[in-house]
Amino acid sequence: MSDSDGSEHTAENEEVTIVLAAVDTSPLASNVVSIAGRLARRMWPNSQLHLLHVFRSARFDRPGQAGIRQEDLVADAQNYLDHHARMARRQCPAPVTGHLAMGDPADEIVKLARSLSADLLVVGTQDVTGLEKFLLGSIAEKVAKRAPCSVFVVRQKQRPYAKLP
């Protein structure tokens, strides 16, 4: 197919759309990957899907792991990321790349989004409230405020309470 100026339009000529999905260790992570894969597949034929898992290296970020070495925890984090990358490859024909980072999740997500020139960022939220939100803040909220691109926030569907007779 040619345009009126004679240039051809092919997938090779089109700009690549970068979708970055941030996965944590919550049950919502699989939904984040699934939604990011579907968006990449259906919205942009010439897209790339990147997955990021951030390993929190600070001591207060995780419960005491008596006898477990830091290297073993990092290896577990890499295996977790690899699992989600395999899942994404089954759902999405676009190239899938996994990234493992260490540090503050919000900072690392925004840093990688900038580095990749991401077009869309997909994150999950557990809607933390009360003291936990006051102390830690919502990662999704921090990312949405600082991201260099649009942010799609995935949350668990709220089920209405059943009325008792």
Structure description:
This protein has one domain: Rossmann fold, CATH 3.40.50.620. The chain is 39% helix and 20% strand. It has five helices and five strands. Helix 3 (105-116) packs parallel to helix 5 (139-146).
Indicate the low-confidence ranges by residue numbers. Answer: 1-11
Q: How many individual helices?
A: 5
Structural category is alpha/beta
CATH topology, anyone? Rossmann fold
CA-to-CA gap between the ends?
63 Å
Major sheet: arrangement of strands: 3-2-1-4-5
Question: Given the C-alpha coordinates, what overall shape results?
Answer: globular
Element string (H = helix, E = strand): EHEHEHEHHE
Percent of residues in helices: 25-40%
State the CATH architecture: 3-Layer(aba) Sandwich
Arithmetic mean of pLDDT: 82
Produce a short descriptive summary.
This protein has 165 residues and is of the alpha/beta class. The protein has helices at residues 29-43, 70-91, 105-116, 130-136, 139-146, and strands at residues 17-23, 47-55, 96-102, 120-124, 150-154.
Brief descriptors of the model:
single chain; Rossmann fold; alpha/beta; five-stranded parallel beta sheet; 5 strands; 165 residues
Write the layout of secondary structure elements.
Blueprint lengths: L16 E7 L5 H15 L3 E9 L14 H22 L4 E7 L2 H12 L3 E5 L5 H7 L2 H8 L3 E5 L11
Parallel strand pairs: 1-2, 1-4, 2-3, 4-5
Helix pairs in contact: 1-2, 3-5
